[in-house]
Amino acid sequence: MIDVQQVYEGDLTQADMVLDWLTSQDVFEIKNEIEEVNKKMLEKLLEENEFVTVFFYTVCNNDLNEINSEESRVIMDKLENIDSETDNFDITFVKMADARYARKWGVTNLPAIVYFRRRFPSIYRGDLHSEKDVLEWLRKNRYRQPELNIFMYALLAIGVAFVIYTAFLLQCFKTPTANALVPHHPKQ
């Protein structure tokens, strides 16, 4: 693996500019691995990208940021294999070691994968050890068409019923036309 390093050449006292640089796609696409993010970086990614996938895991020591469980390490290795394929789907794939922040999105057990489509989370409930299943789930979520929910169907049904009822009332309660009121004289 080639390790390419980038150096930020701006003013380090400008926190917003540093954060913009850290979350820019140029920086993320250099490394061939799933990038570690913090809360601020993830929020920025969710604002700027339609499709983001986050692998949440736990660490032994927050200072070291090392994956503590063998299961998380094995899953991470498998997810690294599909990282480049998620790039082809225009999905930004990152990892985060923050159990409390994961709970904000509804994750109760770690490790877990959460897919965000326009900031709306969807938690992967399948086998994390099957990279093919994870990739297929991401592909289906990425290219899924917006679904009509029950409320939208109800509004549509009410609208159609209103149009039919209005047409019925207009037909039943027609006012007679002027020609029908004037009797025709037989000699006319």
From TrEMBL:
Keywords: Membrane, Transmembrane, Transmembrane helix. It comes from the Eukaryota. The chain crosses the membrane at residues 150-170. InterPro entries: Thioredoxin-like_sf. This is Thioredoxin domain-containing protein. It comes from Dendroctonus ponderosae (Mountain pine beetle).
